[in-house]
Amino acid sequence: TWGSVTNCKVRGMKLAGILLLGFVSVAFSFYLEFPLTPDDVRWAAKTCTYQFKPDPELRHKWCTWNLVPPIVGLHKCFVKCMLTYINIYDEGTGYVNKTAMKAQFEGRGLKPTNLNLL
What parts of the sequence cross the membrane (predicted)? Predict the structure, then answer.
């Protein structure tokens, strides 16, 4: 019937859109160079927020960088997602990219300290 064909097309378009967003996100994350610009970080934050779809209260906390206790599970996932997309955390190895972290600090005129603790 026509309705089922239309529903199938809509689902296919949604799937294609999600796959395209994923591909663009991964491609963009490999493009990033340090130091990152505020737009780079904003892109990662919006992408991660879209992925996790938090409730409005949690979304507001993330948009204002209010990640203080009580820490909910999604806070940790959001931070991990952000650090992964901006190439500071490597999910495959589980390590923080100290070179990238140092370049980010120095690119903003700040002196990184205690990177050896990461």
Answer: 12-32
